Amino acid sequence: MQDHDNNERNRDVWTDAFVVTTDANNLLEDNCLSEPSKQKHFSTILNVLHIYNDICPELLDTTLDVQPNLLFSGLNNLYDVDDDELIILRIKAIQFLLALDSSEFAPSKTTFAETFLFLSLLLNENSSMISSYAKAATKTLLNITGMFEGCHEQMDIWINGLCNVHDSVDKAEIINWLIKLIKITTKHMDKYVNMIIKAEESANADEVINANTLKNIFYELYIIEDKNEKDKNVKKFYMQSATSISPILCCAIHKLKMTSTSVLLQYISYILVHTLHYQVNPEPLIYLITDIQDLQAEKYLLSWCPNNNPISIPKIFSSMNIMHRLSKALMKNSTILQLNELFTGDIKLIFKYENEEVIVNHTLSTYEIIVLLKMSTFYFTHDIRKNNLNEVKFNNYKRVIICLLNIANTVTSEDNSTFVQNFVKTIFSHPVILQYFSFYRDENAIGSRITNLILDICQIVIDEYKLSITDLLTPYKDKAILQIEKMVHKSHDQCTSTYKNIVMLLEQLQFTAGDIVYLLSTLSKLEKNMFMLKNTSSLSICGYIFPKLLQLLYNENIRSAHSEVSKLDTHFVKKAFSYLIFLKQHHVSDINLWETALQEYLYYFPHNIAAIDTNTFKSILRKNIEVTNAQLISFLLSRNRGPPVSSILPYADYVAQFTLIIRNWTRALLSRKLSTSSVARTQLCPLLRERTSYYSLVHRKTTFVDSEIVVPCPQEGRENQRHLGCLATVSSHH
Question: Comparing C-alpha atoms, which of 97, 98, 89, 49 is closest to residue 70?
Answer without folding.
Answer: 97
